[in-house]
Structure formats: structure tokens, C-alpha cells
Fold this protein.
Amino acid sequence: MAVKSGRAVLVGPMFKSEEDLSGVIKSISFSSKDYVVAIDRGVEICAKAGLRPDMAVGDWDSIISRQSLIKVPHITLPRDKDRSDTFYAACAATNLRCNLVKELVCIGVTGGRGDHHLATLFDLSELSSSGHFKRVCAIDNDCEYHFLSDKIKSWDARLKVGQIVSVFAFGGQTKGVLLSGFKYQVRGRTLSPSSHGLSNLATGKRCHVKLKEGRLVVLMPKNLYA
């Protein structure tokens, strides 16, 4: 299998509508260098979006027809397992690997069942500390999630004034947290998993989030301003 040098893009099945799918696909700006991994029914989502997955991973409990898998290299997972299909798909992309792929971008993996949504956030946070990626994020039509860790220590973006951004400690205490370019600035703080960090506001300057130790998740609701 040819090694690609762009992002690893995981495509899951969690889209509310074709309009929702179209909006997310446009925000991703796919290129031929992307290594696309479909997660379970994500292989059918790729077909709808005109995407050709490099591989598919799943236990196929949500797929409509296995005919979708005929021309796609795929890994079949057991129904009884202790991690999510998303986690195994990310591991497959890493192991196959795309040594030059340094970004993990996930679409169609958030929303839906609350337990699946939370499990995905935990898995992506863990993957951000694996050392394989320089960027780990999930994108849906409502929100972007960016995961920071001891391996991915910073995130920055130019945002409009009043854009709401929440920054939470994830999976334990996070030390040396720095926030700049926000209404509520932070320097060298220790954060614990809580609502501390909810609904900060961009000031129009470049927003920057940094940490020294632990994990953070940066949530940026789309088109939501104070």
C-alpha cells in the first residue's frame, strides 16, 4: 500500500443529514495526499461524499451493505472488544503507517449517543499523547475539538472577536496552562477536570493555548459568539 504524506483523516458515520455531511467535507478541504480511513458505516458515507477511502475498519454493525467493502481494503474487528472502532481505526492508520502522516483529523465521530461521543473524546485525547501526531482534532458541523498533551503542547488560531472557546483539563490535572488572546487570560495555572475553562472569549488577537504537563481539550463551537 502506498505511503501518503498528508493527514490521516478518519471518516465515521455520525452525520445528521447530507447537508451536514457536505458542510463538514467542505471545511476539511481534502487533498490527494490525505490518507482516508473509513470507520464502519463511514465507508458508505465516503461513497456519498465522493471520497475513496484507502482502507476501512469496523465490526460492521452499522453498515447497510457489505457490498461497500468489496473494493476497499478493510480490517474486520470483533463485535466483542474493549475499545471503540474509532480507536482501532486510528491505530490502523498509525501502524500501516504513513510514517510521514503527522495529523489526525476525524469527522463523523462526534455527536449521536452520549457514551460514544465521550469515549471518542477520551480516545483522541489519549492518541494526542502517543507521539505519532503533531495535531489531533475532531470536526463536526457544530464544533471543533483540538487535543493537547505532553506531545502536542500548543494550539493557536486567529479568531473573530467574541468567538466562544472552552478549554478543559482532560484525564487528570494539567499543569502550566497558558491562555493568551482571550478575555480571560491564564499564565502557568494548574487545571483539574471541571467546568473551569468554560466559555472564554476571543479578543480578536491570535489565540494561543499552551501547557507543560497533562492533557487539554480545546472546544470551539462554530458560529457561536458572545
User: Anything to note?
Assistant: The longest strand covers residues 174-180. The CA atoms of residues 46 and 52 lie 6 Å apart.
